[in-house]
Amino acid sequence: MKQITKTITSELQALSNAEKREIFPKFFKAGKGEYGEGDRFLGVTVPNIRAIAKQYKNISLNEIRELMQSEWHEVRLCALLIMVEKSKKKDEALRQQLFDLYLSQTDRINNWDLVDLSCRFIVGEYLLNKSRDILYQLAQSPLLWDNRIAIVSTYAFIRKGQLEDTYVLSDIMMHHPHDLMHKAIGWMLRETGKRNPERLYDYVMNHRADMPRTMLRYAIEKFSPTERSVLMKRV
Asked: pTM of the predicted model, to two decimals?
């Protein structure tokens, strides 16, 4: 194990919570046959991981790559949060390097929290003024985490009032086999509805017959009870 990995792992272990260490493997579905199968947890909360990440935000990209190979979930999350910290700099060359590094490690960004806490900043915000073709490639990937990165990264666009990619990617992945994607797509659709509720309402009306129910429930959460009642009807 490289020195930076040893150091950060040791600091995270010092913050370990025995109860969390027992709960996390169940919460993040790390059992046999589950989406997080085989992952290992130290039992450290996100605020504590963020604090460590801020302390080490100046480590090199090679050191971040080393951290991403850790067997420990929280060490990989710390690496990702360090990347998020670095992405805040107004340095386009660095942001591109972070973007490239991130997409080279998606097999290690292998749970929903790792994706959701990082991709909007490292992928979405980087692509705000660039081609979004890579998101459509990720949407077609056989890797679940690539698919989730594709849709959740559009959160950065939504916050700028740019809704089109979210809807197109939702169309592409509408019938994804995994419930984690139904939740992610529904979540992003719900966010578009905060900017343009009429467009979301029309979209759901047009897709409610075949939209997975979890996706549908997430998407319409902010509508009134009456509107939700109408939209939940299949026909």
From this structure: 0.96
